[in-house]
Automatic annotation (TrEMBL):
One of its GO terms (cellular component) is cytoplasm. Its EC number is 6.1.1.21. Its main location: cytoplasm. Residues 1-331 form the Aminoacyl-transfer RNA synthetases class-II family profile domain. The lineage of its organism: Bacteria, Pseudomonadati, Chlorobiota, Chlorobiia, Chlorobiales. It comes from the Bacteria. The keyword Ligase applies. SUPFAM superfamilies: Class II aaRS ABD-related (SSF52954), Class II aaRS and biotin synthetases (SSF55681). This is Histidine--tRNA ligase. It comes from Chlorobium limicola.
RNA sequence: GUGAUUGUAGCUCAGUUGGUUAGAGCGCCAGGUUGUGGCCCUGGAGGUCGGGGGUUCGAGUCCCCUCAUUCACCCCA
């Protein structure tokens, strides 16, 4: 039993799993380029107020899940980011990106931190990939980010996904609805659970998607948000659904979908996977026009975005066997040393092969030939190159194809030439 | 924060109503083959039985505490 363990809720990712991550990341980067999204990286921490203002102080994230600390006794509180949108918006506003170009399409793959009890599909350090489309108020913008997200899932081969979508209306609609909802809930106030009582004042909409059966009971008779939506909101939502339909993206309208962050308006959506456990939300997002103003912008910045949990993506793909054809990079040549006295000369050969662009390894531990061969086999090396007194005397090498077990003697130059033909040094990008 | 679950070798796990030196498979190392891997055979290394306390002649096994794990609630990716 090792003395030290990883911090609760964090985990190590070892080389075999890195293959899976790189595969997913590769698809994300490729499709982002296809859709014209550009990568952004922001610091892992921000001033705590940023999250309090943006995510909302009534949310669980801000209320109890943030890792916050004081960098020095007199300093401002800093928080390890629990989500990306606030930081990206802060960066965009600080640099005044929209003045340089009025439409910004950004994406990221980043690490986030939330102080929760870990369980399947939930960690304290986790990562999300996501996109933010700033500066466009057209419903085509939300449709664009949803399409990008669903396209990634499709290329990765995921099955069993459900896209649920709703509209929360604009700020005026929500204000009117909030009042109506409060009037309806007021007589039930004493029956509300603690969380719902808290939300009654701050954000009663969130009582709607409570999973507490008793709350659900109370809420069934509540006025419907949909009935309070103005013409503008309805038109916007219809357009979003139209764009999705046209692109063949299946969805379910769910009028109870609210989502936890305070800054959403208009469209909100969520994708769940049947391959996941209790934490089955693979990703979600929406429209958040009011966020910029909340962060001090003089005018509204229409914005749409989504975030997808990378670990959950990974779990879902593993469950569905979507990584079966991934193979670790194997060296082309494993140089085998007959006697350790010849090691230095063998190293020179290794260097020449590497300089020629041929991936080459050699046993550095001074082990027996048998152990070296076993290692070559374990690494799935394509060839073994034997360096012994005979070879050095004749100036030739013995090269063995480890798959076919055929071996032949030839000059080192011939080997290099052979590889140059079969694996070019600068392979064309696919 | 709440509930439940599981902690025995590097990994996956056995361990009978408490009873001698705690086992298996896989993996690792070495030898069989002193210049040749995989397959096979033989051998070897590796364990404070999560930790602490208690009951007992005797505890991996029973009791208490503690730490950690996992799953679930809450909420979210």
């Amino acid at each position: 039993m090792p003395h030290y363990q990883v911090v609760k809720g964090a985990r190590d990712i070892f080389p075999d799993e890195i293959l899976q991550w790189k595969h997913i990341e590769g698809v994300i980067h490729r499709l982002a380029a296809l859709y014209g999204f550009n990568e952004i990286r922001t610091p892992v921490f921000e001033y705590t107020e940023l999250f309090q203002r943006s995510i909302g102080s009534s949310t669980d994230i801000v209320g109890k899940e943030m890792f916050s600390f004081l960098p020095d006794p007199a300093g401002r509180s800093i928080t390890l980011r629990p989500e990306m949108t606030a930081g990206v918006m802060r960066a965009a506003l600080q640099k005044n990106l929209l003045a340089a170009a009025p439409v910004q399409k950004l994406y990221y793959i980043s690490e986030l931190f939330r102080k929760e009890r870990p369980q399947a599909g939930r960690q304290r350090q986790f990562s999300q990939f996501g996109a933010e489309l700033l500066g466009v108020s057209s419903p085509a913008a939300v449709a664009e980010v949803i399409t990008f997200m669903m396209h990634v899932f499709e290329v990765l081969g995921l099955q069993g996904l459900t896209l649920r979508i709703n509209t929360l209306g604009n700020m005026d609609d929500r204000k009117r609805y909030r009042e109506a909802l409060r009037n309806y809930l007021a007589p039930f106030y004493e029956q509300l659970d603690d969380a719902s009582k808290e939300r009654f004042e701050k954000n009663p909409l969130r009582i709607l998607d409570s999973k507490n059966p008793e709350m659900q009971e109370i809420v069934t008779g509540a006025p419907k948000l949909h009935d309070y939506l103005g013409r503008e909101s309805l038109d916007d939502f219809e357009k979003v659904l139209f764009y999705l339909s046209v692109r063949g993206i299946p969805f379910q309208i769910d009028h109870r979908l609210v989502r936890g962050l305070d800054y959403y308006s208009y469209t909100a959506f969520e994708v769940t996977s049947s391959a996941l456990g209790a934490q089955d939300a693979l990703g979600g997002g929406g429209r958040y026009d009011s966020l910029a103003v909340e962060l001090g912008s003089s005018g509204e910045v229409p914005a749409s975005g989504f975030a997808v949990g990378m670990e959950r993506l990974l779990i879902a793909m593993q469950k569905q066997g979507l990584f079966s054809d991934l193979e670790a990079a194997a060296p082309s040549v494993f140089v085998i040393v007959q006697q350790q006295e010849l090691f230095d000369q063998a190293l020179e050969i290794v260097t020449r092969l590497r300089r020629a662009g041929i991936s080459t390894v050699i046993d550095l531990a001074g082990r027996s030939m048998k152990a070296q061969l076993r290692e070559a086999n374990r690494m799935n090396a394509a060839n073994a190159l034997f360096v012994g007194s005979d070879e050095l005397a004749s100036g030739k090498c013995t090269m063995k194809d480890l798959r076919s077990s055929q071996q032949e003697e030839c000059l080192l130059e011939e080997i290099i030439e052979k590889f140059r033909q079969s694996e070019p040094l600068n392979p064309p990008r696919s």
